[in-house]
Design a protein that fits this description.
Length: 192
């Protein structure tokens, strides 16, 4: 029995983006396709095989320590983005404002996918889910620039809906309209 089970749940890539320079802006530039390498999307600010550790892993590593980059992509759900938009008082939420790399439609409870799940396209490009991408204050400035006041509501609105971080297990090209099949670990839930 394989350790990862293919499911019957198939989503669709509806948006692709790339952040050029996080220091300048978290805003993503939209694209129609992205050629994934093992370091992520070429030229993307979140990419790289390694990264400097941040506050998310300060209990494990002193800030700034070089670690494996399992946060190469920010993957969000179209359905959860619609919920965030409603809470922020917007008609729709542009994923570029949250620094998204991918938006996928059709996978339920997306932000809570089990870590180590896979998202795989028919040609084999595969992303490994690291974990939930907890909302932070960084998108607020970008959102407020386009929608004054909506950015202030983002962190609370995105709680449990910010999507996941992921890294590239198998390189390939992602395109708008591509199907992605969800594969989940074949194990029981942890019971401490």
């Amino acid at each position: 029995m394989p350790a990862l089970k293919p499911t019957d749940i198939i989503g669709e890539i509806v948006w692709i983006g790339s952040v050029a320079d996080r220091g300048a802006s978290l805003r993503s530039d939209s694209m129609t396709e992205a050629a994934l390498t093992y370091a992520g999307i070429p030229g993307e600010a979140h990419g790289g095989l390694t990264r400097a550790s941040c506050s998310r892993v300060v209990s494990q590593h002193r800030k700034g320590t070089e670690i494996r980059n399992v946060r190469q992509l920010c993957v969000m759900s179209a359905e959860e983005l619609a919920e965030i938009a409603t809470t922020c008082g917007l008609e729709a939420f542009d994923p570029a404002l949250a620094g998204a790399s991918l938006v996928i439609r059709g996978i339920p409870d997306f932000t809570h996918l089990p870590p180590s799940s896979r998202l795989q396209t028919p040609d084999g490009a595969t992303l490994v889910i690291d974990m939930e991408n907890r909302p932070c204050h960084l998108p607020a400035r970008v959102i407020n620039a386009d929608h004054p006041g909506a950015g202030d509501a983002f962190k609370a609105a995105a709680k449990g809906k910010r999507g996941v971080t992921a890294w590239v297990e198998r390189a390939g090209v992602l395109r708008i309209g591509d199907a992605v099949r969800l594969h989940v670990p074949d194990q029981r839930a942890w019971r401490p």
